[in-house]
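Exercise 7 asks you to align residues with C-alpha cells for two separate proteins.
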Amino acid sequence: MTEQTALKDTLQHDLHDAMRAQDKVRSATLRMALTAVSNEEVAGTHARVLTDEDVLKVLAKEAKKRREAAEAYAGAGRQELADQEEAELAVLQGYLPEQLDDAALDELAVAAVAEVGASSMAQMGQVMKVLQPRVAGRAEGGRIAAAVRRALGA
C-alpha cells in the first residue's frame, strides 16, 4: 500500500505548501480531502490503493457535501458558516475537472438517448449507464439524471 496516485501526491504536496504558507482554509480542506481518500482506501473488506479516477470521485463527493452544506447554512441565515463551506468548495474545485454546463450536458444526454434508442422513462437506467462514463466527474449525478429526463421529454 505504499504506491500512490499522482493526484494523491499532488494533494499531499499542496497540503505541505499550504501549511508552510499558513493558509488555514486550504490546509484544513486538503487534510479533510486526504482523510476522505484514506478512509475510502480502507473501506470494505480489503485495503486498496485508489486510482486517480477513484480519488476524483472522492473529491467530487466531498465537493458535493460542501455545496449542499453551504446552501443549507445560507438558507438558515448562517452566512459565516456558508462562506466557510464555499471557501472549502473553491479549494476542492481546483482539483476537479471543469464542470459541464447545462447545454453541453443536455447535448450528451440527447446523444445517449439516441444511441440507446430510449423512448420512455422506463429506459432511463440504460441511458444513465451509457452517459455516466462519458461525463466522468464533470457533472453530479443529479444533474445528469435531470438532463436525461429532459432528453426523454419527461
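Second protein for Exercise 7:
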Amino acid sequence: MNEIVLADPIDPDEELQRLAKRYKAAGGVGIQVLNLLGTRAESLLDRLPEPVSQQLNTATRAALEQAMIAASKSRKWVPDQSEWLNTAVGTAMGAAGGFGGLPTALAELPVTTTLLLRVIEGVAVEHGFDPSTESVRFDCVQVFSSAGPLEHDDGSDIAFLSARLAFTGTAMQAVIARVAPRLAVVMGQKLAAQTVPVLGAVAGAATNYAYTSYYTDMAHVHFGVRRLAIAADLPQEQVVEQLRARVLHLK
C-alpha cells in the first residue's frame, strides 16, 4: 500500500467546513468531564503525589514508546474497530483503572496510550493513509501534541497540524521527545481525576470517554488536512491556515 490512496474526489470548500466544525466541537466532551468531576482542569494535577508528578514525563514517554510497538504489532491480529466500540472499550478501561486508585491508574496508562494510538492509526487508514509508513507513523504520534480535551483551546491554536520533521532514523525519537511533555500534562490530569475518592472509577471512565472521543476527532482533522492538501495539490501549511480561518469564524 502507498502512503495514501485517494478514492472519491474532494470538494475543498465543503471539506474545510466539515473539518472546521469537527475541530470546533472536539472539546465538548472534555467540558462534560469537568462538570462531572466538579473541578477545574488546572487543579487536577495538584491531586497527584509529588513523586508521581516528577516522574510523569518519563513515564509518559515510556508509555508512548511502548504504545508505538504494541499498536503496530496489534494490527496484524486485531482489525480496526468502529468509533463507538473504541470509545466503549476506552471507557471500560478507564473505569477499571480508576477503581483501584493511583496504582491501577498508573498500570492502565500505557494500555490507554496504546488504545488511543490504535484509534488514531485507524482514522489514518480511513482517510487512505498507510500507518506502516514512516511519515504516517510520525503523524499518528504528532496527533497527541494537540493536548487533550481538558486543554482544548476552542480553535485558537492548530499549529500542531503543520509540525513536521525530516524523516531520518532518529526522527521518531525526536517526535516522541517533543510530544511527551504535552501528553504528560494530559495524562497527569487523567491520573489525578482517577484518584478522586469514591469517584475514581467514574472519573476514569469519564476521562477515557473524553480522551478517546477527542483524539478520534483530532485524528480526523489531522489526516483530513493532509488528504485535502494532497488532493488539492496545495502546501499543507496553506490548508492549515485556511482551516484556522474557518475555525475562528465558526459560532
